[in-house]
Each structure stands twice: as C-alpha cells, then as structure tokens.
Design brief:
The complex is a heterodimer of chains A (about 425) and B (about 450). By secondary structure, chain A is mostly helical. Chain A is about 75% helix and about 0% strand. Chain A is globular and about 75 Å long. Chain B contains 21 helices and 12 strands. In chain B, the strands form 3 sheets. In chain B, strands 1, 2, 3, 6, 10, 11 and 12 form a 7-stranded mixed β-sheet that branches. The chains are: A mainly alpha (about 425), B alpha/beta (about 450).
C-alpha cells in the first residue's frame, strides 16, 4: 500500500510541480502584494511596506471600482441569462429542423474567432461618424437606411396603414386569447397543476417582454412618439396574454404572435425616421454597456447551444414520446421532461459562462479601453497593472475577482466529482 | 522496486521538470550577435530590417530583429521584469527608459559621449537620453510634433495667412467659421492609447503658455497637476477643441481614429470643399494622408506651418523620437549604436522612411523628399527651444495612462476640469518617486 502511494506520487509529482509553479506561486504572490504599499516588482519577490487591508478599502470605495463592480454584475446577469436562454432555445428548436448542422455551425462560428478580433468586428458595427458623413458603422448606416426608407412618402403612408391594421389585429387577437385563456383557466383551475401553469405563463411572458425590450433598446434615444408608446402598451398587454394563451395551446396564440411581430417591425421602422447617428460606445451608462454585452452574447451563445444541444440529444426519445402520448403539449414536455433532464448540463454551462464573464476584459480593452464608464473588474485590473503600474491596486482587484470566481469553480468541480462517482 | 530507487527517480523527475521549465528562458548569446527588440511594424519595419542587413554586411555582426508590439511598455516590460531582456531595443518614450534605468535594468552609454559622433547630435537629443547624469539612450531619428497641416488651396482662395501668434490663430479660426468652414479636425481614438493626440495638443500649448522651464517642472512633477498654469493650458486647449471649432464636435473627435482623421483636410471624392481646414499632428501623419488621398500633393494641396508661438520670438518645437537603449554592454552593441549615429545611415533611413528626421547635423536638408519635411528638419535644427514629447517623458503610469484618460474625460465632458486635474495629481503622487510636487 505504501509503495502504491509512492508510485502515485511519482506520477503526480511533475504535474503538481508545474501547477504549483504557475498557479499557486502567482496566487500567493498576488495575495501578498495586495497587502503592500509602494510596491516595487524588482527581484523575485515584490517588496513594499505592509499596509493591511488599506488597498482593499481603496478598491471597495473608489468610484471607478464601484462602476466596475456595477458593470461586472450587469455583464454577469444579462450576458449569462441571455446566452443560456438563447442557447437552450436554439438547441431545442434546431433539433426539429433539417438544416440543423449548418445553422449550428454558423451560430458557433463567433466562438472560433478570437475575442480581440470579435471586438474589432463589433467596433466597426458601432463606429460613428458625424451626421452628414458616410456612416462606416454597420448599425448607424443600417438604421439610417431604414429611417430614410420609412420616411419616403409612399412607404411612410403604407407603413402607417399597416401599423393601424396590425395594431387592431393584435388587440382583437389579444382580447380573444386573453378571454379564452382566462375562461379555460377558470374551467380547469382545479384539475391543473397550478404551480406549473402559473410559472409557465409568467416565464413565457417575461422572456417575450425581454425580447421586446431588446428591440426597444436598439431604438433607444430616438424619442418617444405617441405611436411608439401605444405600440409598447399593446406589446405588454399582448405579451401577458401570450403567456396565458400559449400555455393552454390556445388557437389564438400563433396569429396574435404573428401580428405582434409585424406590428413591432412596423413600429421600429417608423421610429427610425430622422435617425441621427449615435455614439453607441459613449452613451453611458446603459447603452454602451449593453452594446458591449451584446458582443459577449454573440460570441458565447454558440458555446451554450453546443453544450445544451448535446444534453438535449441525450434525452431518451421514449420519454418525450411517452409524455406526448399522455397528452402533454410541447411546452409541457419542454418544462416537465426536457428541463429536468438537462438540469445538470444547464448548471454546468451557466457556471462555465459565469467564470468566463467574470474574467472578460478583451472586449472592453479593444473597444472603449474602459473609458465612458465601461470598465469591468478584469479590465480595470489589467489597466491598473499595465497602464498605471499600480501593482497593489491591481493585486487587490485580482484577489477580489478570485474570491468571486472561486465558488463557481467549486460548484463545477463538485458536480464533476459527483458525476464521476456515479460511474 | 525498493523505495530508495523510487525516491531517486522522483528527485530526477523533479529536477528534469525544473530543467524543462527554465531551459526556455536560458539562452546563450555569442559575442558577435545582437538581439534587438523593436516597436516598428509594417513599412517602418521593412526599412529597419534592410538597414540592419546593411549593418550585418558592413560589420559582420549578426542582428536578430525581434518585432514586438508598439506598446513596448507591456510587451517588453514583462521580459525585462523577468530578467530576460534582449540586448537592445528601441522605445519611443524616455519615461519608460527612465523607469528601467532607475530599476538598474539598462547599461550606461556614457562611452558614446567620448566619441566624435556625440558632437554631431543636434541639440537636446543627448539630454533626452540622459537620466541622472548618465546617458542611457541614443536617438537616431526624430519627428517634429508641433505641426499644423492645412488645406493650402482654400488658404490661397480665401486669402488666409498662416498665423504667427496665438491671437492670429484664434482670429483665423473665427474667420473660418464666419466663412462657413470648420477650422479643425481632431482624431483622438487609438485603441488602448485613446487620448494621446490630445496630450500632444496640451504639451504644445503648455510649452508656449507656461514656458520651457515650467514645462520641465511639469514633466518631472515638480509642479502639481492642480497648478493654475496646467489648468490654463487645458482651458486654452478648449478654445480649439470645442463643438464649434472641431469637425463633428467632441463625439467625432473621441470616436475617430487619429490616422483616419487627417484626410478630412482634403476634400474626398465628389466634394469641392474640405470638411475641415487644419489638423495638428506630427510629421508621420503625411503617410496617412497619402494613403487616404493619393491624388493630393503636399506643397500644392496641403502644407504645414509650425504651431504658432504665444509670445514673441520663434515658436518652440515639440519633438519625439525613438531611443536606442541597451540591456547588455558588449562590443557588438556599441558598434550598432555608433553605426546608427552616423550621418550616412541616417540619411538612408530618412530617405527610405519619409516622415523621419535625422538627428546627426551632418545630414543635409536636401535629402528630405519634400519641402514640408525639410522645413521641419530645419525648424528642429534651429529652434531656440525644443522639448521632447512630455507624455512620453513622464512616468509612464501618468504619461501613457492617466494623462490619456484625462484627455478623454475632459473632451467628453464626463468630468469637470478640477476633477480631471485632481485625478491626474493622485495618479502622479502614486507613480512618481521624485518631484517636488509628489506627496
């Protein structure tokens, strides 16, 4: 037994040494540096005078780090939730089409581009030139073109008519769907599993509102026209009804969704009239941070999709069939069979993305360099280290980041170990 | 197996893996070989490599040119800190050279002062390469920064005179606005170094409004950033950099790349009037204008004047250049330094790489490809006052860190002037180890 122990040490030894040298040593040095003041990096060890937790107090109280904390939280919540939800939807929906592999390759492609290259691509998407110049930014020139198109007299009249038609259609379908949904809800209240029912309605409604909110975000800063406000009110009403209607396989669901989508497109086009080029990356604090987060979502959705798709394919078809035979509709199958089956993968994907989001700095470094209130913790750390030579502040931020990331690493390892144990 | 054997294998495996880790870092250099880390890229690098080839042929010394990024501070900094520097490098900023000199990473070049070549160097260049009385850097090529590029055709049509004083410049730009032109185009965007073109503006202003003595104190942090004279320079900057005087206002200035911006002084295809009339930038910008507007001719369509003096006398000159620094002292390194100080190699360099100006006074003005450049070379030779780019000379945490941010925050209006200056002063207090204003 003793000898066996020794042999295992022999195999682990070199790896342990390398890990120790490149992982533990820097971690310890960084933690040590974060308690020093007036640090000099000359020599093998950093030198300076011990200042206790002063660096942490500075880091946790200065405006720039508070902004970085806020942005990191924003990235964490928005980017993680959107990538996982989009990845899940794509994994499930693409499974049902026959061009699946092609669509998946295209969506996964941004993941193959280096983050720096992706940032440069998006820098051109958001590029700004003053009004009257040729817009070299994709977004500004696209929105400008849509605005010009919508402002043409003929097109404009047609769009206004369409807006009214789709608006009325949406209201009618929404009222019908709402009525029927509520009617059936009252009718089957006792026999249904209430919790599932309500949760399904609420979550579907929220997801759709979030999608509408993104569309709204794109047209942000263009001013609120009465038409726009009316459309948004309709939209919210419609979304609540959709949540109610779609859950019950309501026959008014699809036409309502269709008319709302068309209404949204028309409303968007109308609101782009007289579009002025926007400095997407300078409008603090929401527009620029959201614009940056969209870059992250663009890159990472493919990763979530591939992970979740693999899990989805692992669900035994017989289970899904059995649920369908028992009379469950697609949404119920998704909610009661698919999701529980995929739970472990969803958690693993989420924790992986959380770890990466906390470490993201490339997007910010390349596009805004952290100016205009877009710094996140990791980019601020890099800037403190290499731009300002403020080793102690950089080390303190690094330790804070490490502490934030650590629990997620533990979750991932635990999960991995428990899975190994089952085998 | 007995445990003795096993433990010896264990020890051996540990030793081997340590060896593997360090074998990458340890390389032995022959006496006749020089490794040279350079920040040059693109066409600049090609010319530089051809010059090195010439050096190899002439001397028989092998040179290994290692191109690293323009951001030498990050790219080379980690190698220097890790004890694995090249033999030589070129850095565009004396601030970085001083950092390394203070840490004892650089070798002295004082032997160069004893050569005949030292007397041939134009004024100010040896001082720029000196830190605490010891020479650490030799500048083989420079560029003049105090230039205003302007649309000559429009100037002639409208009868505008190139200004000689601050008052005339202000009057001129107001006249331009009255005539329906936009006086300036400014491009501050430069990726991770966004803001640096604004620091050049501020330095030119500071050199004139506060004078060279105060300018030196400012660089060394002998006066604080909250000094009224610094605030005054920022205020003068905003006489030019404001919504009325700059093409597209602050939004355009902050989002437009410095390289893209200069072309707007020449009308693009299908336009008969340029978007703006003047652009303040160093000699190198000519390459960018040529690329974007290949039909425009320097001297006919556009030309330069020196950013005017604020008082009486000839205007002071702000310049920049690449410092050759050495991490190891050996004969081959000395040969290379001397070689690049010679007039004929510098002449080849400025001929093949337009935009550069020789620092050896023996290089005749006639070698420059156009009037604009020879005028700049002459200005550099004859200037009563010449100073190296301040942001490059400052402690790099300030000069290429918080100073850049300050320009962005000031121009965008995100912070008030006093907030901007307080932030700068705090970062300078952290970064500087000397200077009378350092707390």
């Amino acid at each position: 037994m003793r000898e066996r122990n020794f042999v295992s040490w022999l195999f682990v030894g070199p790896a342990l040494l390398v890990v120790g040298f490149f992982l533990f040593y820097p971690t310890i040095i960084t933690t040590y540096t974060s308690f020093l003041g007036d640090v000099s990096m000359k020599g093998a060890f950093p030198t300076g005078n011990f200042v206790g937790v002063q660096n942490y107090i500075n880091v946790l109280t200065s405006t720039e780090t508070l902004i970085a904390f806020r942005n990191t939280m924003l990235w964490l919540v928005v980017m993680t939730s959107f990538t996982v939800v989009f990845g899940l939807l794509l994994a499930v929906l693409l499974d049902k089409v026959n061009y699946e592999s092609m669509a998946k390759s295209i969506i996964f492609m941004p993941m193959a581009v280096s983050f720096t290259a992706a940032s440069i691509i998006w820098k051109f998407v958001y590029a700004y030139r003053p009004p009257g110049f040729t817009q070299i930014g994709l977004l500004n020139s696209l929105m400008g073109a849509i605005g010009d198109f919508a402002a043409r007299p003929g097109v404009n009249a047609a769009l206004n008519v369409m807006f009214v038609v789709f608006g009325i259609a949406a209201v009618v379908f929404a009222l019908l769907a709402l009525g029927k949904g509520l009617w059936r809800a009252i009718g089957i209240w006792k026999e249904e599993d209430r919790v599932t029912w309500i949760a399904g309605a609420v979550i579907t409604g929220l997801v759709l509102i979030a999608i509408w909110w993104i569309i709204g975000f794109i047209s942000l800063g263009q001013g609120m026209t009465p038409l726009g406000i009316a459309a948004q009110v309709l939209m919210v009403l419609g979304l609540i009804s959709i949540g109610l209607a779609a859950v019950r396989d309501n026959s008014f669901g699809p036409p309502l969704m269709g008319s709302l989508l068309l209404l949204g497109i028309v409303d968007f086009m109308l609101s782009q009239q007289g579009f002025e080029p926007t400095t997407w990356l300078m409008q603090r604090p929401w527009t620029n941070n959201m614009a940056l987060i969209v870059m992250g979502i663009w890159v990472w959705t493919g990763f979530a999709m591939v992970m979740l798709s693999a899990a989805y394919k692992g669900i035994p078809q017989s289970m899904l069939e059995a649920a369908r035979v028992d009379g469950a509709n697609e949404l119920q199958v998704f909610w009661n069979v698919t999701i529980p089956y995929m739970k472990t993968t969803i958690i693993a994907t989420t924790t992986t993305i959380v770890i990466f989001v906390l470490k993201i700095f490339d997007f910010i470094w390349v596009t805004t360099n952290g100016e205009y209130g877009t710094d996140v913790l990791a980019s601020l750390m890099i800037r403190k280290m290499y731009s300002f030579y403020n080793y102690e502040a950089a080390s303190a931020i690094a330790v804070v980041l490490f502490v934030l990331i650590f629990p997620f690493v533990i979750i991932n390892i635990r999960r991995f170990q428990s899975r190994e144990a089952i085998r | 197996m007995n445990s003795k054997k096993l433990s010896s294998i264990l020890v051996l495996s540990i030793v081997l893996s340590i060896g593997l880790i360090f074998s990458g870092a340890v390389t032995t250099y022959g006496q006749e070989k020089v490794t040279f880390a350079t920040s040059f890229g693109g066409a600049e690098l090609e010319v530089f490599q051809s010059l090195m080839k010439q050096f190899e042929e002439d001397t028989g010394i092998k040179v290994e040119v290692q191109p690293v990024s323009r951001n030498m501070k990050t790219a080379l900094g980690s190698r220097v800190a890790g004890g694995n520097p090249p033999d030589m490098a070129n850095v565009p900023n004396p601030g970085l050279m001083k950092n390394w000199a203070r840490q004892g990473d650089l070798v002295s070049m004082d032997w160069f002062k004893d050569t005949e070549l030292a007397d041939k160097m134009a004024g100010g260049f040896l001082e720029t390469g000196t830190y605490k009385g010891t020479l650490y850097g030799m500048i083989p090529a420079a560029s003049v920064k105090s230039l205003v590029w302007y649309n000559k055709k429009v100037f002639e049509e409208e009868g505008y005179e190139t200004p000689e004083t601050l008052g005339e410049l202000i009057k001129l730009q107001n006249q331009m606005v009255a005539d329906g032109y936009t006086p300036w185009v400014v491009g501050l965007e430069s990726g991770g170094a966004t803001g640096w073109p604004g620091t050049d503006w501020l330095e030119d202003i500071m050199l004139r409004s506060a004078g060279p003595e105060t300018y030196d104190k400012w660089v060394n942090h002998d006066i604080s950033w909250t000094n009224p004279q610094v605030a005054e320079a920022f205020r003068i900057f905003s006489l030019f950099m404001n919504e009325d005087m700059v093409m597209g206002g602050s939004k355009a200035a902050l989002t437009m790349n410095f390289g893209d911006s200069a072309q707007y002084i020449i009308p693009g295809a299908g336009r008969d009037k340029p978007r703006a009339l003047m652009h303040r930038q160093a000699t190198f910008i000519q390459d960018f204008i040529k690329d974007a507007r290949p039909d425009a001719k320097v001297g006919e369509d556009y030309d330069t004047f020196i950013f005017p003096s604020f008082g009486k006398g000839s205007p002071p000159i702000l310049f920049a250049g690449d410092l050759f620094i050495a991490f190891n002292d050996k004969p081959a390194v000395r040969e290379l330094v001397k070689y690049f100080a010679e007039a004929d190699i510098q002449q080849t360099w400025v001929e093949e790489n337009p935009g550069r100006l020789a620092t050896n006074v023996d290089v005749p003005l006639s070698v420059y490809p156009n009037d604009t450049l020879s005028k700049s070379a002459q200005a550099l030779k004859e200037a009563e006052t010449a100073r190296f780019d301040a942001s490059d000379s400052m402690n790099s945490a300030v000069g290429s860190g918080s100073f850049f941010s300050a320009i962005v925050n000031y121009v965008s209006g995100d912070k008030t002037l006093s907030e901007v200056l307080n932030t700068l002063e705090n970062s300078a207090d952290d970064a500087y180890e000397s200077g009378e204003a350092t707390d």
